[in-house]
Amino acid sequence: MRPDLIMKSLVPIIMAGILAIYGLVAVLIANDIKKNISGYTVYKGFLHFGGGLAVGLSGLAAGFAIGIVGDSGVRGSAQQPRLFIGMILILIFAEVLGLYGLIVAVFFYAD
Fold first, then answer.
1. Per-residue pLDDT of the chain (111 residues; tens, 9 = 90+)
2. pTM score
């Protein structure tokens, strides 16, 4: 419909890609397991499992929210360009859901 808004329409896709970066906590956990395989306890295993669940489930929820808001926001801002700022604000709030999961996982990992 509006080829002039293509770059603005890519914002939700970029924000969804940022959620994948939060999953890199799994790399930290795997590196910790490799280094300390002899001293790896069940307690540490459950901590890492909880951290993985926190990142995964919060990333899933944030991804769903970004997908729904991005779809309707891009369609709406193509018809009324003033909706773009509102879409960006809601996308930021949805992205923060994934960031909260990352923060919780880092606390699990730090213990």
1. 677 888 888 889 998 888 888 888 777 777 777 777 777 888 888 888 888 898 899 999 999 999 999 999 999 998 998 999 999 999 999 999 999 998 888 887 776
2. 0.82
Query: Which parts of the chain fold into alpha helices (H)?
Result: 6-9, 11-22, 25-35, 42-79, 83-110
Q: Rounded to an integer, what is the distance from CA 53 to the centroid of its chain?
A: 13
Tokens representing 18?
């940022």
What is the C-alpha separation between 33 and 54, in angstroms, rounded?
A: 18
User: 50, 107 in Cβ contact below 8 A?
Assistant: no
Length of the chain: 111
What is the distance between the alpha carbons of residues 91 and 100, in angstroms, rounded to a whole number?
A: 15
